[in-house]
Amino acid sequence: MKKKFKALFFTLAAIAICAFLPKGNTLTVNAAESYSVEYVGGTYDAWRYQPGTSFDEPKGHGPLGELMLKLKDGDTVIVFQGDTAPKTNLDLGSVKLNNLTVHQGVQVVVFTGGINECYVLAGAFAAINGDVTTAHIYGPTTCTFNNNVLDMYWHMEDSPSSNISCNGTVGYFNASYASSGSYWAAFYSIAKGQHIIKDGKYNVPSWAYGTEEDYLKTKNAGAAPGTTTPSNPGSDEYDSVPKTGDSNTVLLLFCAAILSFTASAILRRKESN
Question: Which class for 3: exposed (0-12), middle (13-18), buried (19 or more C-beta within 10 A)?
Fold first, then answer.
């Protein structure tokens, strides 16, 4: 009888926990998504988005504000060249992206909360805001990173003419020829604001380099050096979106564990009496 009572009690406890778990605190993990973004002129004259890895304007597209309600840490954003030059920056809020790709010919100033993998393709004219773990730049291109980059790879054109700069620090820089893959140069721990390539020529002073040991210390810390201020920390739209793993779920499970432990102790005491 006591065993049946125990089983009934814990079954009812589990049902109660599930019943009172808010919809915004589900125990599932949301899969990473990919979104394509393009500046559309004409009647829109604004940044627009589509789900997926390509942008097909005739299929319809949504406003950037709608994307901001969906975008989360770990997602991918691909920026395509639109039919007109953008009149506004592309502000993706404080989300840390898994991948940001800037396609050929795109002109963009993009704000993020950080990027794991950043690709800037040939012909782009881009300014990237947010710490970057790994950046791949394909020449010829013009690109500025306004925060820190841990690993930067320049896939050079045969006659280099790219303009690449970083206003933060660069942990490791590697340059090789895109056509042959042959190695050109590598440098470690470049000081803040000193990484400058102008018209294909490397213009970093010798005092601005560090050592491989300095770089490895930074890399082993598990993040790009320095900190990044979110591009739009006061965004009400983004802050109102529930994130996977919010503290409310943890709190509910913690309370449930206490309830279960207490109930078990009471039952054991009754049995011993």
Answer: exposed
Beta strand 170-177 pairing with 97-102: unpaired
Q: Report the distance separating Cα 137 and Cα 119, nearest Å.
A: 6
Total number of domains constituting the chain: 2
User: Model pTM?
Assistant: 0.71
CA-to-CA distance for 33 and 31, rounded, in angstroms?
A: 6
Is 146:168 a contact under the CB 8 Å cutoff?
yes
Tens-digit pLDDT profile for residues 95-147: 999 999 999 999 999 999 999 999 999 999 999 999 999 999 999 999 999 99
SS3 state at 111: strand
Q: Label residue 75 exposed, middle or buried (CB < 10 Å: 0-12, 13-18, 19+).
A: buried
Tokens of 73: 């840490």
**Where in the sequence is the domain holding 10, given as residue range(s)?**
1-29+244-273
Q: Are 79 and 108 in contact (CB under 8 A)?
A: yes
Asked whether residue 255 falls in the same domain as residue 155, the answer is: no
The rounded distance, in Å, linking the Cα atoms of 21 and 249 is 8
Cβ atoms of 80 and 98 closer than 8 Å: no
